[in-house]
């Protein structure tokens, strides 16, 4: 172990001897030692930093060692990499690795080479669960000291409680909200504000503008284990309770933060820990909607804040879109409702002619609805609608000729479909489709991962004009589109070797071959790509930059 550690170093160099390859690579950094002896190997988003962990040897009392830019930083009983923290000042932007660590019965974090204060471990956890803000500039975790729990945000400890829940970051990426328990009463903490006490609360929901926080409260019921049942329920917004109901759930804000909607019910009852029966409706800004036998969670449309949700009435399913109802279907997949970009065009998956068994709907004919227009019928919608990055159309995969049972769908032929609401383009029959990806750079360009046999895969790429396919391979990972071009990159495995391939109108080109290829990051200019690789014979892990055009002879 010590001999191996002594070999660790970081270097920057050029490999000039690339054999017969016309693609000359630049080695940005490399790690010497058995690659399987490293964990959490991660390059910073700007590829200037490298961090990894040398874990303890199994059945031997040795520590876990953190390495940053191939320098041994510190050792702990247990280490877990949490991510890169983005730090910016007058000199520029820097990415710093963040780890949660533990030694003995104490745990904390280490940011770069700066250790936090150590706190008590939470239950059986070996370290802290850390949440990073959306922009990776802040972090939060819950900790314990003197048998009390509290939230730590950017190393600043908050008020102590008997228990605290998971944190949620506001859009400012600094303020957090969480629930907390003290003396059998619950509170919601939102930045410097604290709302409560309450008998029971749900998780906080922060508005997109960061101004408001909403949460569910209940009173008059009872606790059964970790579940609260019975009583009256209501939504509270910035400490102000709304109307009470027999049950409410999942408040959601509009994109501008000015409106709130949630589902509610009256007249039902509790069966064990589940609320059932009664009439159901959606409440929007305090106004109750039409009663149904059941309703799903509401969402706001992006353009005009139109409230949209699935509802059931007399065994028929409808999509409620503002004041309108779309369809009367035997089933709607309420988890697959999407808006097309920032418009109010909505797509969803529905079915007619199937049957229910053991609470599962299956069989019949399935189709994608684009607003009130019905798409082609299939035996199954295998991959639900995916929004293209240019936000003008959706793509999905349907299947015919397979078989349904209560465990799912299998067999048949598969078809890729593009739809812009006015027309659909359906592909010829395909083998099993495992993945559908739109290109972020070229309209109507997409890639499919096809499984042609049990351990044989092919990548199909349609660039908007031409279709290209890779050669069959044993495994595929890291499919990436190249910016501003009609090509994609992928790591494919054939005969125990990994190949970096480029797929474009002319077919597949092998750019380079290694023992293992990890992540692939195409450059913004589309001229090169950074890839992480392993050479087992040299016992070396590399991060290399590879040009995407061959050098001239």
Structure description:
By secondary structure, the protein is mainly β. It has a domain at 1-35 and 431-553. It is built from one helix and 62 strands. A hairpin with a 2-residue loop joins strand 48 and strand 49. The longest helix is centred in the first third of the chain and has 5 residues, at 2-6. The chain is globular, with a radius of gyration of 27 Å. The chain starts with a helix and ends in a 6-residue tail after the last strand. Mean pLDDT is 88; it is low at 1-21.
What order do the helices and strands come in, and which of them pair?
Blueprint: H1 2-6, E1 13-14, E2 26-32, E3 39-43, E4 50-54, E5 64-68, E6 71-76, E7 78-89, E8 92-103, E9 106-111, E10 114-115, E11 119-120, E12 130-132, E13 139-145, E14 148-153, E15 156-157, E16 163-164, E17 168-169, E18 176-182, E19 185-190, E20 193-198, E21 200-201, E22 205-206, E23 213-219, E24 222-224, E25 227-229, E26 232-237, E27 240-241, E28 247-253, E29 260-266, E30 269-271, E31 274-276, E32 279-284, E33 287-288, E34 294-295, E35 299-300, E36 307-313, E37 316-321, E38 324-329, E39 331-332, E40 338-339, E41 346-352, E42 355-357, E43 360-362, E44 365-370, E45 373-374, E46 380-387, E47 394-400, E48 403-405, E49 408-410, E50 413-419, E51 424-426, E52 432-438, E53 446-453, E54 456-462, E55 467-469, E56 475-481, E57 487-494, E58 497-504, E59 507-514, E60 516-522, E61 528-535, E62 540-547
Antiparallel strand pairs: 1-2, 2-62, 3-4, 4-5, 5-6, 7-8, 8-9, 9-10, 9-11, 12-13, 13-14, 14-15, 16-18, 17-18, 18-19, 19-20, 21-23, 22-23, 23-26, 24-25, 26-27, 28-29, 29-32, 30-31, 32-33, 34-36, 35-36, 36-37, 37-38, 39-41, 40-41, 41-44, 42-43, 44-45, 46-47, 47-50, 48-49, 50-51, 52-53, 53-54, ...
